[in-house]
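Researcher: Here's the sequence for the chain we discussed earlier.
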Amino acid sequence: MNNDFKQIPYGICDFKQVRKENKYLVDKSMYFERMERAGNFLFLVRPRRFGKSLFLNMLEAYYDINEKDNFQELFKGMYAAEHPTEYHNKYQVMHLDFSCVGSDIDNLSSNFNNYLTGLCESFIRKYAYLYPKGCEDEVLRGKTGIDMLNRLNNVARDSGCSLYLIVDEYDNFTNNVLNVKGQQAYHDLTHGTGFYRDVFKLFKPMFDRIIMLGVAPITLDDLTSGYNIALNMTIDSRFNQMLGFSEDEVRQMIRYYKDAGAIKPEVTEDGIIADIKPWYDNYCFAKDSFGREPSMFNSDMVCYYMSTLVDTGKKPDELIDPNTMTDYGKLKRLIRIDKTEGKRTEIIHNIVEEGFIKARVVSHFPAERMMEFGNFVSLLYYYGMLTIGGVIGERLKLIIPNNNVRLQYYQYLLDEYSSIHSVDISGLDDYFDQAALDGNWQPLLSFICKAYHDTTAVRQLIEGERNLQGFMNAYLTLTNYYLVAPEMEFSHGYCDFFLLPNYTVYPMVAHSYILELKYLKTDATEAETAQQWTEAVAQIKTYAADRKLQTMLHGTQLHLIVVQIKGYDVVKMEEIR
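Model: Thanks. This is the structure I predict for it:
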């Protein structure tokens, strides 16, 4: 295999390193001029792992006066080199990354002060040649980080210097405080004389341009109302595609490595897209962009997949980057902040059971109001747990973006079910083996139905067809043999579940399944039970007759299974032939 090709910068956020080492880069520099036109004070929220840090690092190199002589080398072949703005390399840039403050919540104040002090020291030394003699010493005499920032502001203004502030992960440690310590500790940090609020007061008058990025709009709303004249780019259609990859950008990457001989000939461009699209794609961040612009892939996930494919010659065994497990932990803590999770849990159930929720996305809100319906749903949207999937009147149809996120919801439900009634899942792998390899599906479905019975019998949490489907879905996703597709359309109808064989990873899977679940209330009559069964049999046979279904089986034997449950007891469970 030819090794003369650019490496994929998976996990690298240093723009100069990417360019120096000639790594593959998706050009996003065309957004610099849009940002300049939009305003001097900008704010953007995007989910984790969407390329925020690399983008900001590139932005720093573009505006840093110290990189003026390196501009053409750094941006050669990129949009910015051919269309430079008048402000490129005109600023002294201070780049703060608050994820570096640390996770020691009990010592945040001193850790933050140490971090800010170090940044101010390195800043004034980096740009000392632009200041009159003595300015560097004046700044370094500051006794605290805030004191040094004030002194730096004074000498910069006296010297007529232009300053650009970049803040990455502006809400990193404040979100940790909120998630771990609760709302009171968070309030003390961001209100009144809280040290973080104090430093925020200095930013607006000190810097000529500011860009702040984070994962939620809560902290900014709480820190200062004076910052509200900044443009919130988060839901602005002009910046919908600024972070993440469009399908065209992903296909360009695939073609590059195909042309370079880094991907085996039998691995096709369309095959890769078919692999990753259900797992990484489908994000839309602006109402006006829905249906008009392509949906966006999670860029970090694409790089994870492609780097594995290029380096090993085969795609990852696990399509989900293991690093995303930290996202699930944050979701769980978010729901249980201050142990008042009741309404939030209900919202999670509704999203999983319906597949969507109708709401307005709120642009900003304080932490003490985050439990309100619209604010909490908006927070799920900002965290990447929901995305725009349609417009319904004045509201948005917010959907689960992809299988990666869907699995996090199901994991939450499984944990919740387990807290009600502990279910031993140690034998599930054997049951999945029997269903996938041998076509013996009864042990698997019997196990899940018994778990449903036991959990529901303990507490009437799960009653109704939608809740039954959510329970079944959560358990079915515990295997990698199948891509579980709920509500798949066949013959102008929607089956409850299609277990699509994950044949590229597990070619040994020999059996696929359509499952039709039917729920009856406990007072249903025998006649109603019999009629429902007859209708279910007719439905599932209609689904099986769909022509496109045959193209999805990949040589596996299809089984049609109907499960009928009354209350929380199985009435009938049979394979339809």
